[in-house]
Amino acid sequence: MTCRICSADVSVLLDLGTSPPANSLKKSPEQFQDSYPLVLEICDNCGNVQLRDCLDEEALYKDYFYVTPSSTLLSRHYDFLQSFLFKNNYLTSNSFVLEIGSNVGLFLDHIKPNVAKVVGIDPAQEISEIANQKGIETVCDFFNEESSVKLKDQFGNPNIILARHCFAHNCDPHRMLKGVTHLLDDSGLFVIENAYLLNTIENNEFDQIYHEHMFYYSIRSMKALLAIHNMHLVDIIMSPIHGGSIVFVAKKVSAEDKISSAVGKYTLQEDLLLTPSAFKHFVENTWRIKDTLSRLITGLRDGGWTIYTYGATAKGNTLLNFIGLTDKEIKYCVDSTPMKQGKYLPKSNVKVISEEESQANPPDYFLLTAWNYRDEIVNKVRQAGNYTSQFIVPIPFVHIL
Length: 401
Ligand SMILES: [Zn+2]
Hints:
Layout: E1 11-19, E2 36-42, E3 49-51, H1 57-61, H2 72-87, E4 96-100, H3 106-111, E5 117-122, H4 125-133, E6 138-140, H5 145-155, E7 160-164, H6 173-183, E8 189-195, H7 197-202, E9 215-216, H8 219-228, E10 231-239, E11 245-252, H9 261-273, H10 276-302, E12 307-310, H11 314-323, E13 332-334, E14 351-353, H12 355-360, E15 365-368, H13 374-383, E16 390-393, E17 399-400
Parallel strand pairs: 4-5, 4-7, 5-6, 7-8, 12-13, 12-15, 13-14, 15-16
Antiparallel strand pairs: 1-2, 2-3, 3-9, 8-11, 10-11, 16-17
The chain binds zinc ion (ZN).
């Protein structure tokens, strides 16, 4: 196999077995679903970490069920990101902002009062309709060179293009970058927010690995990718959201570009920490978590305790399927998204119920499959009057709160 950034040979880093697409919930437990391999590969030449097998994007995203949840944590993150962009003049009140993979438009809605114009583009039919109904103009399409031509004709050149938690979601980043370089003028910025490989590795977040995540970017691999398109990094900021995210600020290379000192600082840190031994520990810890969690959950089940998972998340499906947990061990999965309720998790067949149903009949233990919202979930459960259920946190190591 070869690297989809630089075309060099790659080697296998971690094999998680097979899993169905993680966001494809089932209407009934009997519904058949294909499973596909989840194999992580690494390129020594450019540092790229990629998923070996890429699923068809139409199949993955056309009937997408992931709706950005309304959450105080996310809203705080939006404030953080917005203030970073304004403080550095990356955004001004005259900016035209285009967001790729804008989902229901929550972030655009957040910044809309402070900029000149916002437009979203998202391939999911139902989700882009919701955005448009809320007043966030959203084009339903994949972002690539072809759609960038249409966007330019219709809206003109954006000053800033955002790709938040979607840039790694397609098999060929070169296609997306061709669209970006077509659309941006020489002073325009491309801002990519993504899970950060160093955090994934250091915190044993193997559950970040699912079919939508086709790349696991580091500063090194992002620089290599941008260089191919005559672009470079001018700034970086780190955020604790989603288990550790990185925000890359990139632009077309020009002699006048001021490069923030953060780029050098974080590059040095990454060179020191993202070592072969860090990758080795990540793989060992992944197998250790599988073993510990499997013994804990089956032990609790055999002792007659009830267990629900909290969060019908993509990462939760990776976790359950890798460990081999099903509706035999897990009674229900709780999720606040109405679109997911009444459906079944792929492969594990666990039924998704609402928070109200869970509250009426709480379990002995919640396994936190949305551990990135841990404090928010625990507070919500306690404030609703449930003081008895305990919480099992799987990552970065298995523990009970
Ligand atoms: Zn490579």
